[in-house]
Design brief:
Elements lengths: L1 H5 L9 H6 L14 E10 L12 E12 L4 E12 L4 E12 L25 E6 L4 H7 L26 H6 L9 H16 L7 E8 L8 E13 L2 E10 L4 E10 L9
Antiparallel strand pairs: 1-4, 1-6, 2-3, 3-4, 5-7, 6-9, 7-8, 8-9
C-alpha cells in the first residue's frame, strides 16, 4: 500500500507541487515550490487538547503574516496558524516561515530582524539527547499517525500530509545542492521537543508553553542527531526559559536559535 501510494496510484495522494502552485499572494511574485525549505517555527500551547472530540468541531485559521525579500539568498513567507474549537477557545498558535531558495531580489521588504537565543557560554548542557535516524526514517515519518506528537498537530510535514518529494527521492535535493533526499526539518524539530519534554518535563505536555527553533542545515537519513539543552534559571509567570541546539554528530548545527518555556521537573520519564 505504501509503495503504490507513493507512486500516486492512490486517490488520497496529493500532488505536492500542484497543490502549492495554486496558492497566490497578492503583490508577490510566483515562487517555485520545487525550491523551498523550512526556515523557523514557533508553537505556543494555549490550552490542553480535549481527550475526546465527541460533540466538538475544530478549525484551523491560517493567514500570511509577511513576505520578505532576502536578496540573492531567497524569500521568506511567514504564516500563522491557530487551532481552535469552532466558536470557542484557541488551543495552539503556530508561526512558521518557508524559505524559497534563490528567489529574492524582487523589490520586496526585507522584513524585521528576529531575536537570537544562543546557548549560554562556558556552561555544560544540562541534558544531552541522542536520536539515530536510518535510511527509512523519512519514509516512516511520512506515513506515521498524524497524532504521533502533540507538537506535530499544527506543523505541516509528511507526518500529517507533507508529500514534498524532497524527502523521498534524490532528484529535488540534488538540484538544491543537498546531495539527495533529506529528512523533514520538523523531524529534527519534533524530536528535540520530545527530548526536552522527556528530560525536563516528565513527558507531561502541560509542562511546556512555547517551543521554537531555526532550521540551520539539512539532515540526511542515517544521521545521528545530538540535542543539547541548558536551563537558564530565568522564569516568567512560572515558565523557565530553556535554550537548546541540535547538531549532526561530528558535523553542523541543524537546529539553532532553540528556545522553550517549560515547567521543569526533576523526574525523568521513560516515555
Amino acid at each position: 500500500m505504501l509503495r503504490s501510494a507513493f507512486k500516486q496510484t492512490d486517490q488520497e495522494i496529493v500532488d505536492f507541487y500542484a497543490r502549492f502552485n495554486s496558492i497566490s499572494i497578492p503583490g508577490v511574485p510566483k515562487f517555485d515550490n520545487h525550491r523551498v525549505v523550512d526556515g523557523q517555527r514557533l508553537i505556543v500551547f494555549l490550552k490542553p487538547l480535549p481527550s475526546s472530540s465527541e460533540g466538538r468541531k475544530f478549525e484551523l485559521r491560517s493567514r500570511v503574516i509577511g513576505v520578505y525579500d532576502k536578496g540573492k539568498a531567497g524569500s521568506v513567507v511567514e504564516t500563522e496558524t491557530v487551532f481552535s474549537e469552532k466558536g470557542g477557545d484557541d488551543y495552539t498558535r503556530a508561526i512558521g516561515s518557508a524559505f524559497f531558495v534563490g528567489q529574492g531580489n524582487w523589490g520586496g521588504p526585507k522584513g524585521p530582524s528576529t531575536p537570537n537565543f544562543p546557548p549560554p557560554e562556558g556552561k555544560n548542557p544540562d541534558i544531552v539527547h541522542v536520536t539515530q535516524t536510518n535510511r527509512e526514517s523519512a519514509h516512516l515519518y511520512r506515513f506515521a499517525h498524524p497524532l504521533w506528537s502533540y507538537t506535530c498537530l499544527l506543523t505541516p510535514s509528511r507526518l500529517n500530509g507533507d508529500y514534498n518529494p524532497l524527502h523521498a527521492t534524490p532528484e529535488p535535493g540534488q538540484s538544491m545542492g543537498f546531495g539527495g533526499a533529506i529528512m523533514h526539518g520538523l523531524f529534527s524539530w519534533n524530536t528535540a521537543c520530545h527530548a526536552l519534554l522527556q528530560s525536563l518535563g516528565n513527558s507531561d505536555a502541560a509542562n511546556i508553553r512555547e517551543f521554537q527553533a531555526r532550521f540551520a542545515a539539512p539532515v540526511r537519513p542515517g544521521d545521528k542527531l545530538i540535542t543539547e539543552a541548558w536551563r537558564t534559571g530565568e522564569s516568567k509567570d512560572g515558565w523557565e526559559e530553556i535554550r537548546f541546539v541540535t547538531r549532526v554528530d561530528g558535523g553542523k548545527v541543524v537546529l539553532s536559535n532553540g528556545r522553550a518555556l517549560m515547567r521543569c521537573s526533576h523526574v525523568k520519564s521513560q516515555l
